[in-house]
Amino acid sequence: MTQTDVAVLGAGAAGLMAAIEAGRRGRRVLVIDHAKAAGEKIRISGGGRCNFTNLDIRGERFLSQNPRFALSALKRFTQWDFIARVDAAGIRWHEKTLGQLFCDGSAKEIIAMLLSDLEKAGGNLWLQTELGAVERQGQGFRIETSRGVVEAESVIIATGGKSIPKMGATGYGYRVAESFGLPLVETRPALVPLTLAEQVLEPMKPLAGTSVTGRASVGKTGFDEAILFTHRGLSGPAILQISSYWREGETLRLDLAGGQDAARVLREARQAAGRVALRTALAQILPEKLARHLETISGLQGNLADQSNAALDQLAGLVHDLPITPVGSEGYRTAEVTLGGVSTEALEARTLQAKAVPGLFFVGEVVDVTGWLGGYNFQWAWSSGWAAGQVA
């Protein structure tokens, strides 16, 4: 039998942050995880350099059934607060694009900082320890583990979502929530490549590996970043972003022009060199393979000089508004995060504590709060973990 004040289940970003904060308050803290090492998703994130936050954190860049829920934690522990900790640890960083901050060196520096802070705060860490049932016991909790029973006054669930199961992700946190009667919002993969039906993919196979700066939209929501054509469908930052908003049956609209006016480019090319092929003119603004593909699906015959203004406008329309209907996504295997989770209706925004179960907290990805690509989900982990750690 092991007794502790606070048991943190999950040694990822949110769990370590919560444990550090609870430990700094003088609480006895035990962090438990089934993985061989702490912070595994931190380690692989950002190509191994960890996109640890974003300079431009805004509430509207987080998806949830209650979009305002995340604001309390995000405003009380901000990106600037975490940057200050990174600076104090001597970790050098840079802004890559769109406010995204990465380590100059390795993501392992962030993990080392967190583990050092945990040790200084007096926290203990159990790795390679399987977690079982969590049950109410008097005013506290009883947690079954492969190292025996743990008794704790407070429990913080920081076990993440279902994303990247090869890293050990499971639905454990959701099962704990359900065992206490807490509602869940349906989960689905997010920030994930989208797949196309075979009949749609077949004529596009030559495009595999082709990337273009453009805009991917669904409804009124769109993202301007790179779009990558793959052997299974679509990927790249713009597609990962829009995947959080896309639903099965909906059609994506792709603007592949990268801010250029395709109709103007085509008309000027016709005036300057009317004998060139349509694909040659399109190649001024698109990769050559993509130019060929759009020429083919346009159904237009002949050179530029053979085309009317209406025909060129039709071709330009494909460049600016190419409709593609995915059939699904690559799933949790490659999804960066999980959309949905423990309903925010069941939690206190200020503390992340379950309203109906005093002493039980849910932080990070397990909660129905999902950020955009670009450091937003790490900031939610830091902020929500910090908030729970102040009171657990």
Describe the structure.
- With 392 residues, the chain is an alpha+beta fold.
- The chain contains 13 helices and 21 strands.
- It has helices at residues 13-24, 40-44, 71-76, 79-88, 108-120, 172-179, 198-201, 237-243, 262-272, 278-282, 288-298, 309-320, 376-389; strands at 2-9, 29-32, 51-54, 62-63, 93-95, 100-103, 124-126, 131-137, 140-145, 148-157, 184-190, 194-195, 211-218, 221-229, 233-235, 252-255, 322-324, 328-329, 337-342, 360-362, 370-371.
- The mean pLDDT is 96.
Shape: elongated
| Low-pLDDT residue spans | none
Number of strands: 21
Helical residues, percent: 25-40%
What structural class should be given to the helix and strand makeup?
A: alpha+beta
How would you state the average pLDDT, rounded? 96
Q: Characterize the main sheet.
A: 7 strands, mixed
How far the N terminus sits from the C terminus, by CA atoms, comes to 21 Å
Strand content: 25-35%
CA radius of gyration is 24 Å
Q: What is the number of helices?
A: 13
What would you say about this model in short?
The chain is of the alpha+beta class. It has 13 helices and 21 strands.
Characteristics:
alpha+beta; 392 residues; 21 strands; 26% strand; 30% helix; seven-stranded antiparallel β-sheet; elongated
Please render the helix and strand layout as text.
Blueprint: E1 2-9, H1 13-24, E2 29-32, H2 40-44, E3 51-54, E4 62-63, H3 71-76, H4 79-88, E5 93-95, E6 100-103, H5 108-120, E7 124-126, E8 131-137, E9 140-145, E10 148-157, H6 172-179, E11 184-190, E12 194-195, H7 198-201, E13 211-218, E14 221-229, E15 233-235, H8 237-243, E16 252-255, H9 262-272, H10 278-282, H11 288-298, H12 309-320, E17 322-324, E18 328-329, E19 337-342, E20 360-362, E21 370-371, H13 376-389
Helix pairs in contact: 1-5, 1-13, 9-12
